[in-house]
Write a structure and sequence with these properties.
Blueprint lengths: L6 E6 L5 H14 L4 E5 L5 H11 L8 H25 L3 E5 L3 H10 L4 H11 L7 E6 L2 H9 L12 H17 L4 E5 L4 H16 L2
Parallel strand pairs: 1-3, 1-4, 2-3, 4-5
Helix pairs in contact: 1-8, 2-3, 4-7
The protein binds P1-(5'-adenosyl)P5-(5'-thymidyl)pentaphosphate.
């Protein structure tokens, strides 16, 4: 079994099932005795959690796309330097609920910021840190939105129109097509037990079962 610490990101649209998959992942890693942390973006450090509130809470002042992008990267840099890198250096696996692919999908395809601007920030702040594996939880956006509406009030991003989320999904699928060795697509438009089985099989392959 490979014990080299791995960095795994979990991506997908709203309500695609990331939190649900992370529970399955945690229980699999615990079962295998693999020491790990679960963290998230936006967030992951006390300061980055404050930035998360700025990003997700509704406000009377329009948050401009450029400001939004810079806030995501500001929180991400705190997260990388204070949590992700130190954890990997200690030999812990890092499971992150979203990472930089989300900026390409949401601020790029969603908001319309050019890919080269996002790529510039990525090169400056992230350099060669990349998830070893990315689980892309994929479902039609309308289905994910229906699921989260049952949960209660929507946040500042969740209230976007369906076209926005269709662009986000298309971008994620395009990113996955470009890097098939890193991305593992899990169809979450299925019964929960099937999704859990597929997530566990994916983890088993990553861990070298
Ligand atoms: N963002 C983030 C950017 O714009 N740019 C960035 O760079 C980054 C990092 C973050 C927001 O910020 C944006 C993206 C987001 O808008 P978030 O905390 O990641 O927000 O929130 P969401 O993506 O909105 O995550 P959610 O918690 O809302 O959804 P999940 O985790 O994908 O879904 P989950 O697992 O909570 O499931 C939703 C519901 O569906 C049920 C669950 O029980 C739950 O009730 N469910 C199923 N029901 C039936 N069958 C299944 N197979 C099911 N799977 C889950």
């Amino acid at each position: 079994m490979s014990r080299e610490p791995k960095f795994i990101s979990i991506e997908g649209g709203e309500g695609a099932g990331k939190s649900t998959a992370i529970k399955t992942i945690q229980s699999y890693l615990n079962h295998r005795g693999i020491a790990h942390i679960v963290t998230r973006e936006p967030g992951g450090t006390p300061l980055a959690e404050k930035i998360r509130s700025l990003l997700l809470d509704k406000s009377d002042e329009l948050l401009l796309p450029e400001t939004e992008l810079l806030l995501f990267f500001a929180g991400r840099y705190q997260h990388i330097e204070h949590v992700i890198k130190p954890s990997l250096n200690k030999g812990l696996w890092v499971i992150s609920d979203r990472f930089v692919d989300a900026s390409f999908a949401y601020q790029g395809a969603g908001r319309g910021i050019t890919e080269s601007r996002i790529a510039y920030l990525k090169e400056w702040l992230i350099q060669d840190l990349s998830p070893d594996h990315t689980l892309l939880l994929d479902a039609p956006p309308s289905m994910g939105l229906d699921r989260i509406k049952l949960r209660g009030e929507l946040d500042r991003i969740e209230v976007e129109k369906i076209d926005f989320f269709n662009r986000v999904r298309d971008c994620y699928l395009a990113l996955a097509a470009k890097e098939p060795a890193r991305f593992h697509i899990i169809d979450t438009n299925r019964a929960l037990a099937d999704v859990q089985n597929n997530t566990t099989s994916c983890l088993a392959a990553i861990c070298g079962a």
